[in-house]
Amino acid sequence: MQKTPLKGLARLRAAFVNSMTGLRDVWRNEEAFRLEAAALMLAVPAAVWLADSVFQGAILVASVLLVMIVEVLNTAVEAVVDRIGPERHELSRIAKDLGSLAVLLASVLAAMVWLAALVDGLLA
Length: 124
Fold this sequence. Notes:
Elements: H1 8-29, H2 31-50, H3 54-84, H4 90-123
């Protein structure tokens, strides 16, 4: 027997519940995510203080959120690879390393955005 797909508000509610379960899982299992969440808590007031406009503040905060988003996706890749099996495989290594690289690149982007805002603030 096939399950009837949810529609409308029931679908939105189910998606929200699944998302909150994912948030709980990543919070419990990923120290990097918790550190990035702490960085976000620091970034919001720092962006308010540093930004010359609402848009600039949003970009500063968004750059930190992007790191967190990529971290979640990296964690998902790692979970899928680990689910396949514990044996070492070159493709598994590549998948995990590329996820890690994505987090690094997002972090470099965030650092560049924040550095540019700091330099702009000092030169203004």
